[in-house]
Amino acid sequence: MTPSAYEPTHPTALAADAEAPPPSATATATFGMGCFWGPDARFGATPGVVRTRVGYAGGTEPDPSYYSLGDHTEVVQVEYNPDTVSYEALLDVFWANHAPFSAPLKRQYRGVVLAHDDQQCEAAKRTRDDLESRTGKAVETAIETLDQFYLAEDYHQKYELRSTPVVADELEDTYGDAFVDSTVAARLNGFVAGHGEDDEREALFAELDISPAALSEVRRRL
């Protein structure tokens, strides 16, 4: 990684992260929606989502990796503030952004809800049934209980943002190992992929303590 010449005012936590609720105050959802790069970006730009990460789940093989996936599926894990966004609202994003009526060609990319508790499982089944009733089509997406989540390799995390290296390098210099769980990184990962509303972007840009060069590169991607 190339060191950044810019020295942020808050080297350990940008303001948006300092204000984000801690993991103890969030809930977690896990979804398989095909290649996990896209869902990571889409959920990252969703208001109420605090953190995102991608990984492997839904299988039985221990310690999967990208090149030794076994029977696992690529998934995105979403930490969200339940006072701001509901699990049902996240399910709306989920159903609208994968192919629920198509059987997966590969287990790696299947659509699946991996519920963290009975309430999530019931909500997923209810919304699945509603989708089938509205469309008259059978949903192929699986609904299962999450057993274990395995974090994917660093180069998969915030992939769209990493494709903007001026910004990603600066944020990794700022956050170190905390980059993956940064709210700022999640938002910017979504914004550079084309998600989010203009007012949401500008509100974040106004409080970001990043270099002018990095901010300019983010705007170039919009």
UniProtKB/TrEMBL annotation:
<comment type="similarity">
    <text>Belongs to the MsrA Met sulfoxide reductase family.</text>
</comment>
<dbReference type="InterPro" id="IPR002569">
    <property type="entry name" value="Met_Sox_Rdtase_MsrA_dom"/>
</dbReference>
<protein>
    <recommendedName>
        <fullName>Peptide methionine sulfoxide reductase MsrA</fullName>
        <ecNumber>1.8.4.11</ecNumber>
    </recommendedName>
</protein>
<feature type="active site">
    <location>
        <position position="35"/>
    </location>
</feature>
<keyword id="KW-0560">Oxidoreductase</keyword>
<comment type="function">
    <text>Has an important function as a repair enzyme for proteins that have been inactivated by oxidation. Catalyzes the reversible oxidation-reduction of methionine sulfoxide in proteins to methionine.</text>
</comment>
<dbReference type="InterPro" id="IPR036509">
    <property type="entry name" value="Met_Sox_Rdtase_MsrA_sf"/>
</dbReference>
<dbReference type="Pfam" id="PF01625">
    <property type="entry name" value="PMSR"/>
</dbReference>
<feature type="compositionally biased region" description="Low complexity">
    <location>
        <begin position="11"/>
        <end position="23"/>
    </location>
</feature>
<dbReference type="GO" id="GO:0008113">
    <property type="term" value="F:peptide-methionine (S)-S-oxide reductase activity"/>
</dbReference>
<feature type="domain" description="Peptide methionine sulphoxide reductase MsrA">
    <location>
        <begin position="28"/>
        <end position="161"/>
    </location>
</feature>
<feature type="region of interest" description="Disordered">
    <location>
        <begin position="1"/>
        <end position="23"/>
    </location>
</feature>
